[in-house]
Amino acid sequence: MILASRYLRLLDPYMEGPDVLHVQERLTQLGYYEGPLDQVYDEEVFEAVRTYQADYGLGPDGIMGPDTWNSIGLDPETDYPLPPEGYSIEIDLENKILTLKQFTEIIETYPVAVGKPSTPTPVGNWKIIQKTLNPGGPFGTRWMRISIRWGGYGIHGTDAPESIGTDASNGCIRMFNEDVEELYDIVPLGTPVKIIGDVFTGRILSEGIEPGPDVFAVKTYLTQLGYYEGEIDGIFDEEMREAVIAFQTDFNLVADGVVGVDSYNDMQLAVEQYLDIREP
Q1: How far apart are CA 84 and CA 150, in angstroms?
Q2: Active site includes 22?
Q3: Residue 138 known to be catalytic
Q4: Looking at 22, 50, 156, 241, which residue is catalytic?
Q5: Are 142 and 132 in contact (CB under 8 A)?
Q6: CA 271/CA 266 separation, integer angstroms
Q7: Which domains does the chain have, with CATH numbers?
Q8: Of residues 172, 173, 225, 253, which has the active-site annotation?
Q9: What is the pLDDT of residues 129-146, one digit of tens each?
């Protein structure tokens, strides 16, 4: 699958945000971190992540990728019981609408921005498990983390209001700041979040496979990384296969020209590091 969210890692300047705060809080609970809960991914957080990864049989690279996110995740059923107020949220990815309900009554609808095809918003049934006031920057004025176990996904405000109504994010749900402030004040922790829609989540890609947006996304990655110079389209041809093999060889993957989970993950991480992608 192609993964969304942010790969948290040590950068200069440091990465900041409520997803970093969640890592700090969780590693504090687990006894790996004793530093400040300041939303900053600095050397102390990096070393705590590395130590945790080593203890749990993960590659100790200090990067919060999907495996590490999944490993440190809380159990939303145990830690966040269903609140009695009856509020629920439904997010329609196709129409880019967030609907707030109380029991069966629709309270309000809001326009949103959702994940790009290359970093889709995961469909499914989740819960709100963290709320943060004024996270700032690309997160806007409010942040509500969703219980997706393999990344730092949330419903939040934005400093790019022009993106609302489009496929623009790394998987998070963006709202106008005035809208997310209103929603934040209403819904408690544990509020159910249902995300619906037909989204691209990735296939195992090989030469001759039916054309699709996933092939287009991989060709875009390979072009950005300097492995592919052909036309960027949805067709997996011989030129793309050779580019995939070259990438896999350089990144110590099985060089079979087939794009599976490992190749997807390493490709996306390499692009994020190359382009310094930090926004949610």
Answers
A1: 27
A2: no
A3: no
A4: 156
A5: yes
A6: 9
A7: 15-75 (1.10.101.10), 78-196 (2.40.440.10), 213-275 (1.10.101.10)
A8: 172
A9: 889 999 888 999 999 999
